Amino acid sequence: MKYFGNTRWYTIALVTLLYASSSWLLLNLASETELTGNVNFLYWLAVTGSTVGYGDLSPSSTAGKLVVAFYVIPFGLSIFAMVVGRIAAWVSNFWQKGLLGMKPLHVHNHILIIGWNEQRTMLLLDLLLMEKEDLPDKPDIVLCVKANIENPMPGQIEFVHVESFNRDEDMDRACVADAATILIDNPQDDVTLTTALYCTQRNPNAHQVAYFNDDSLVKLLQQHCPKVECTPSVAVEMLAKSAFDPGSSMLHHDLLSVDAGQAQFSVAMPEGMNTVTVEKLFVNLKRYYDAIFIGYAPKSEYQKLVVNPALTETISSGDKVFYIADKRISQFDWKRLGE
């Protein structure tokens, strides 16, 4: 089967043509005229060579039976095995390429995760898959890595293996220019920094988030790419906070994890809507959706988050509203919220 799988298609086609021609010639010499008719011959050769053998057509002469027994069936089985082996090899190769991340993708408006951090990346993928179920468009999730691994979630996410996060040829296979969201998380902060710079150049309109272990690199990246949302490690801060306010770490975990109860979400106020005061939004979110308003980010500067604003402040079209709820609210009645 290994040798059959390596056989070229043109070789199989040539052998099949020679096999069919010689079979027709031998049957014609044996006076099997019923089998050598154009349509009858093609039909009979296919069912006989593949050993299906319906029996509605069969040789009647002794010479014809000998030709079928010692030539048509043995050689037909060999050719059939070549075809099956070649198809199996192609399917296996195609599957292996997908599993190893070697085939190009054809996706757009997807979530692209760049980097591999083992269990942290697996947790990130689990959370994204859960969040995805609440979204109407359900975007594809693509994991792009340099690590020597296979697709950790075949059938659930797309997977691309690259040699460099800064080479067009590699990153085009991950459709970096067409991604709606790009999440960058590498063990090395310098790789995260250069990758963020590259992705900003290739896809300036994508929502881009970069995770850093070293906070000092956050300001450096934001000087060159102010639209990139930088997420520093907050483990130490959470530890210190819990020392003086017991339960703080559990609260933060609850708000960040979509499977742990109440979680934090965001939504942009649609264009063309009238401004609404924080007071009305706070009261009506709780009244109509049992959700809690916690802050907003102005349209002009999403990085400038305003938490616990005064009740007299106003929210305008395009501003991003942050709230806490049991699950993501798929549709808001903004007119009702502004009453």
UniProtKB/TrEMBL annotation:
A biological process from GO: monoatomic ion transmembrane transport
Keyword Ribosomal protein (UniProt): no
Gene3D superfamilies reported in the protein's UniProt record: 1.10.287.70, NAD(P)-binding Rossmann-like Domain
Transmembrane segments: 9-29, 41-57, 69-91
UniProt cross-references to Pfam families, sorted A to Z: Ion_trans_2
Segments forming domain Potassium channel: 16-92
InterPro entries the record matches: K_chnl_dom, NAD(P)-bd_dom_sf, Trk_Ktr_HKT_K-transport
Name this protein carries in UniProt: Two pore domain potassium channel family protein
Protein's organism: Alteromonas ponticola
